[in-house]
Design brief:
Layout lengths: L2 H8 L3 H9 L8 E3 L5 E3 L1 H15 L4 H12 L5 H45 L5 H11 L11
Antiparallel strand pairs: 1-2
Length: about 150
């Protein structure tokens, strides 16, 4: 299949597919050159590119994917063990990142509680309208037309 069809099947752009090929993530198993020098991609290329998208969504870098792919395609008996070690390392890194994010969440929650206590202490008014208005304004994007900031 041509690159346009591959792009449609994978949801990737043609330049992205060419980039993956240039980086060695698509090889002769996935793409061959025709006599007219056009690329001809096989169905396995679709599966491989979808796998790349999945592992990136899971937090793997392209270099990590390449290392894992090479480990899985090595022609020896230790392939499963090497792949398992690699995946365990990634699971540990994800766990570390989760712990870091939980610390940030705890910190932000405590800062919010402190701020709300200060506001309540300084106003001595037990109305929720100002608090709701502040929370509403904080939830709105600050840049018109750019909702991807939050």
């Amino acid at each position: 299949m041509k690159i346009h069809e591959l792009a449609q099947k994978t949801g990737l752009t043609a330049p992205s597919i060419r980039f993956y090929e240039k980086e060695g993530l698509l090889d002769t198993r996935h793409v061959k050159r025709r006599d007219n020098n056009y690329r001809d991609y096989c169905e396995e290329a679709v599966e491989h590119l979808l796998m790349i998208k999945e592992v990136q969504a899971a937090g793997f870098t392209l270099a990590e994917f390449k290392e894992l792919d090479e480990a899985c395609n090595a022609a020896d008996e230790l392939v499963t063990q090497r792949a398992a070690i690699f995946i365990r390392r990634k699971i540990a890194a994800v766990g570390q990142r989760i712990a870091e994010l939980e610390q940030v969440q705890t910190y932000l929650t405590s800062k919010l509680a402190e701020m709300l206590q200060e506001v309540n202490a300084s106003t001595q008014v037990s109305t929720t309208a100002p608090t709701l208005e502040v929370e509403r304004s904080l939830s709105e994007p600050h840049f018109k037309g750019r909702s991807d900031h939050y």
